[in-house]
Each structure stands twice: as C-alpha cells, then as structure tokens.
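Structure ticket #2291
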Amino acid sequence: MQENKKKQVLLVGNPNVGKSTVFNALCNKKQKTGNYAGVTVASHSGHYRYRNEEVEVVDLPGSYSLYPSSEDEAIFSKFLLDHQKDYAGVIYILEALSLKRGLLLFQQIQDLGIPMILVINQIDQAERRGITIDFQKFSESLGIKIIKTNAKEQMGIDEIKEAVLANNFVKTDKASFQTPDEHKDFIRKIAAHKGLDNEYKAWMSLSLGTDSVRTGALARQVNEPDSKSLVPKRLQVQETVRRYQNVDKILSDVITKKPQFKELLTEKLDKVLVHKFWGYAVFMMILLLIFQSVFFLAEYPMNWIDDAFAWLSAFTGEHLPEGPLNSLISDGIIPGLGGIIIFAPQIGILLYFLYLLEDSGYMARVVFLMDRILRPFGLNGKSIVPLVSGTACAIPAVISTRNIENLKERLLTILVTPFMTCSARLPVYSIIIGLIISDKTFLGVQYKALVLMGMYLLGFFVALLSAAILNKFIKSKGKTYLVMDLPTYKKPLFGYDLKMVLGKVWDFITGAGKIIFIVSIIIWFLSYFGPKQKPDQWVATNVELDHSYLAKIGKGIEPVIAPLGYDWKMGVGILTSFVAREVFVGTMSTLYSLDDDAPEMKVIDKMRHDVKPNGEKVFNFATGVSVLLFYAFAMQCISTLAVVYRETKSWKWTAFQVVMMTGLAYFVSMFAYQILK
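Resolution: structure written out below.
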C-alpha cells in the first residue's frame, strides 16, 4: 500500500488514562508509560497493519481541555484543530474511574464535529471499587458506541482495530453545549462571517483567545456594538461550568456505586506512602534498595562482560597481523566499547526499578510528596516529573517540562534538571566509586551503594539550591498549584517493563557505542603516532603513550586541570566526554589498554595502580571525590544543550546554563581535592 494511502487516527484523552498503553498495544511499540501527567509531552506515531489496512496512530499529549494551560496542551490543541483534514478520526480514551473529568474534553471534540470512536479503559479498576456502569444507557446518552478495554491485558484492542477498519467514527450533529442566550446573536454572526458550519466553532474562535483585543476586532467586522462581556477567560469558565452540569446529569443515570464497607488497598497504603514523615522515609528506603541492587545484582554480568571483552581483545591481538590494524582493533576499539558496555547491567537494573515504580502508580505519590519540598524553591510538584525523568536522561526530561503551566517554573526546571544524575553519569560514578570505596558494608548495605545514593541525592539538592537562587532573579506573574488525581495501585507488568528496559539498554549501547567507536579511533590514532625528535622527520609510529600526540594535547591542558588532581589522561577523558558524559569511561578504557606495561591486567586494576611522576596514586581518594563532584555538576552533553535551546528558544539561557554548571563543577572539584589531598 502506498504511504499516502495510510489511514491516520489520533489517540486522545486526559493524562493518566492508559492512553500510551493503548498506543503500545495497538502498534506493538515500547513507548514509556507512567502513572502521572506529563509522560507524553509530544506527539508519537506508530503503525499497525490489520486485515491489509495500514493505519498510522498518532498519540497526542494528554489534555483536560481544548483550552491550553501548558505547552503540551497547546501542542495537543493545535494538532487537533489544524490537521482535521489529515486524519480519519479520533480514538478517545476515557478512564472508568474518572468519567466526569474525561467527558469535558470528549464533548468539546464532539461539538466540533470531529468523528470519534469512544474507548473506556480500565474497566476492572471500576468494578473492584464497586462502580457499575450502564454502558447501554451511557452509549445512548452520548450518541456513540462504546468499546470496553483493559489495555494492559490486551482486552478490547482487536475491537478498536475492527472499528477503525469499518470506519465506525461517529460524527454527532447535535451539540451538547448550547451557546448562552446573551451571546447567541454575536456567535451566529461570527459563524456566518467565517463560514463555519456550527456555532461551537465560532464560540471556540473567541474563547481560545488570550485577551479581548481580537474579540473587539471581530465585533467591529460583524457590526456588533457590545462585545465587552466576551472576555476569553470568562467564556472558558462559562463553558466549563455548563458542560459539567450536563455531564453530572448524564452520569447520574448511568453509574451506580455499591457502598464500600472494606477499605481498599490503595487507601491503606496511602496512609503510609503519602504520610508527611513516613512517606519520605519509605521513599528513601526504596531508593537505597535500588542502589544496593545496582551493585549487588550487576556484579556477575559485569564480570562476564569484562572477561568476554578481555578475551576478544587478546584473541584479535594474537590472530590479526602485527601492525596498526591489530593495535587499532585490539587496543583501541574493543577496550573502548567494552569499557562502556560493561555498565549496561547497572543501567538496566536502575531503569527496571524506575519503570516498576511508575507502572505501579507509586511515582504519582512521589510527585505529590515532592510538591511540599519544591514549593519553597520556586518549583511545584509537576517539576518532579522532569527531575525524576532526568535520572534516565536529561533530554526527554527537559521536553517534559512542557507540562508545567507557569513559564517561570518551567524555565527554572529546565535550568536545574541536568543536575539530576542521568544514566550517562552512572558508568562514571560506578568506576570511580569502585576505585576509591571499599567493599565493606554498614548494616548489610554496601558503602558503594550508600555513596551512589549520596550522589543521586546530591544532584537533587543542588538542583533545588540552584532553583532557589535563580528564583530570586527570575521574575514571574501569578502562582500555580498542583492539582492531580492519584491513581490506584496496579500490579506492574513485569515482562512488559523488562522488554522496555532491554530496548532502552540497547539504545544506550548503540547510541554510546557509535560515539565510543569514533572516539576510540581518534584516541588510538593520536596515541599511536607522535612527533619524531629529528626536525627533518615529521611522524613516528607506534610510539610510547607518553610521547604521542595525544599526550602532548593532554599535557597542554594539564596546568588547567592539575588543581583538580587530574593527570593528562583524565584531562583527555574530560575533553572527549563533552560529547557525552559516558565517553569518559570509554576513553579511559582505551587509554589504559594502550599502556603496554601490564597487558594482562584488567583496565580497572591498571587505573587503581597508576601513579603520577611524584609517586602519588592517580586515582586516590581526593582525586576520586573530585571526579565524582565534577561529573555531578558539569554540563557535558551536547544533545541536552540542543534540547535546552529548542525549549527555551534562548541562547542567553543556554549559555548561562553551560557556564553556571561547568564553572560550579570546576571550583567545587578543585576545593574538594585541595582539602582532601
């Protein structure tokens, strides 16, 4: 089938109704889902083929209304209204536990004359709470057929595909919202003037405005003398109140609730998990368990990977012909790739636990808890979504700030989110912690796990401190409040989450692997060649590492990094890691593999025994702490910088972020080393 003959449908609904889960089930995709608003902040598209029909599904950001209050809702409204000719219809997702909230947006879309298929998801959750829905009567009241689903269990997905195939998109002519009598004449004039086919579109053309200037201009065009009462915000409030009155009438006839004499598990757990004291204590215990697992569970697969790459390096060194190619592959590329792939198990374990917490509904409680902490620092609870997302990667985390309505709070969150410890920092932290922290335990918890948890908490607290300082200088009008529904606790889909984690880990390996591959070749080239001593000869090959071009570059910057406790090799690692933080580990792995003093020794052991010319260990405790602090604060990710500029549309704030974070990293690392050495 030709690409231009694909049928396009939109997936629409409130945040946290299982929309992304339906998208994944339809398209067999691995899009991340979470039980809090703001996970999907840009449109995602996927495809499926059903009975020889190719369908493109566009998953739009969740929204509560057509009237946008944040960047992601603006993306949703613009796409829905501006691309009506492109899509066949809308698949609207309602959650069985929040019908009232979801019907507001449903009726708005319905009144615009956009054809829809209605899906009610998570029916099982409603039944457990004693809620019974008369679907026959409900369908008649809304004028549309209802498809019942439980997307996590794949129930109802084929029914959706059948409905799309049969073009069962319903377009309702009768509007559920009636224009108030005092505005009818004006709205009809606007509809006639603009050639609109229904009054609600005319109403929307006014109420979507941001002030009364455009309204006044329209009034003059249609010779309407009195338009002072048509303030957009007032129109939006007027419509919302009337719609909810209509929704209440519908739901009162179709929903019955059995009295709940037994307290549900969700209520029991929330007495502890959102408690003003115990909620934070439990959260800290969960984090500690995760970080202990990162070291304990990953130990064996990391050793297997290390041994496999050591064997592969030795095998290629023995069987390839002697010369530059042998050195490039066995001493450059293979150790470089192995140096970063070895940390894939740790990244996978960390992401898996985070996905389970999101899938279960617990992360929504973390958002609620953190609102109390973030308020004094100029942020709100919604800021925790990008901050938590930043523990995986800062790029989607910065994009997720579109869910924050207040522009000042959004800017603050963008500027401080890169302080959060992302998965790219984990290899750096892991190798340095392994070098300077012993294997001893405290109350059964490894010191290494405690230090790793400390690094994550350090990033969080520095983000808060930075936000508090910036809050004094960045001015804003208005104040926002966190309003959110806490979802019921759900059993995580362990297999599905594992599948997503494996995909993310593979993305990390392939993404970082491409960079490491290129960097390894460059580093090998600069380390394999060096200047000859005689002036009439330019280049020497297979020189000692200390006499190579790479050493000259590293020693050239050594005066700048020496106060931080770094030698020239670490300086080269820091330079290359400006591309991406994890490149530091690959660079160090390549550099120490090129050292011929002890070819049989593991890279980490070479790093542990390396000494400076004065006999001091290169990776002593003071230097290790300095490196940890540098990577905790430094802005070393070009991709994140690009996203920050795209989201802020300001070179000033992007440059400020680079200078602020890198300057802080340099001076804090220097002070730490000078004090501890």
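Closing remark: The radius of gyration is 29 Å.
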